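idk why but the lab printer keeps eating my pages so im just putting this in chat instead. protein + zinc ion:
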Amino acid sequence: MQCFNCWETGHRKHRCKNDRKCRVCKQTGYAPGSSECKHYVDPTNSGDVIAFQGKSYPLYNFYPCHLNVFGEKHKTMEEHAYQMTKAIRAGDLEAAKKVIEAGTALDAKRIGHTVKDPQGWHKEKETVMEEIVSAKVEQIPKVKAKLENSNSSTIFAEGTFDMQWGTGLDVDATLHTDHKMWP
Ligand SMILES: [Zn+2]
Ligand SMILES: [Zn+2]
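predcted complex ->
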């Protein structure tokens, strides 16, 4: 258990009595990504880093697009494909159906979260995601172009507190802190 406010272990954010602490430099009073942080970088001058978050970024997993993956039966978005696969592997076909019908990526994600992880999912989910992302690169020209123009930049998903797929520092930290200084 780790607190998302002060980063100490043993309690959660809603019970935290400490001041907010920057996760990168450990100073109190501001979040990582704030210009007060000594690792702050001006995002317009950090050309070696490409961070993405939000539906307007083609690399983002909620980017609206249609993909053909895992057979041609379903036209789906990245998040839909992932949550659908998880539900099917878990044997929860009702949830899988709901995922397919979900109007937005966020809905798909919420439904997916109600499904218990199938056995061995922690080992398999990266392979599943890789297949989906490969399909996205092949099928969506904007995604392909984005990657081809990235040269040797470091690319990462700006996912707040997402330790699995994102960077996990804080909502602004990736854009505004030097990634070489991350904890
Ligand atoms: Zn705390
Ligand atoms: Zn800091």
